[in-house]
Amino acid sequence: MSLLCAGIPITKPCNVTKSKVYLDSNGCKSANTVEVTTCSGSCVTYAMYSLEANMMERSCTCCREESTTKKEVEMICPDGSKFNHSYIHINKCGCQRTECVTPEETQVTRSRRRRR
């Protein structure tokens, strides 16, 4: 079932996505596969004209982490040495409010960053 966002179907809500991979760091590899997590999916974002306010009203949310845990994995190097590597594991994702900017505002911000 899809949710509706201003008449547009949201086919994949914001959620944790998991995959198993080996981690590599400075030529060393994790002894076992590690569950790597990401936040992905859709959140409600809209812009609409408000007759009462006589201006555009915007609401922007983005899919991002809400709860994380620091985990460790044993790394093994080609010379046989071992060390522990810490990484961040995402436990929960959710839609969080963020600033809404227009494409023009984004372009101005990028131009300012280049000048610095």
UniProtKB/TrEMBL annotation:
GO CC term, one of those recorded: extracellular matrix
Cell compartments where the protein resides: Secreted
InterPro entries, A to Z: Cys_knot_C, Cystine-knot_cytokine, Glyco_hormone_CN, Mucin_vWF_Thrombospondin_sf
UniProt entry keywords in alphabetical sequence: Disulfide bond, Secreted
PROSITE patterns: CTCK_1, CTCK_2
Pfam family, one: Cys_knot
Protein name as catalogued: Uncharacterized protein
Organism the protein comes from: Oncorhynchus mykiss (Rainbow trout)
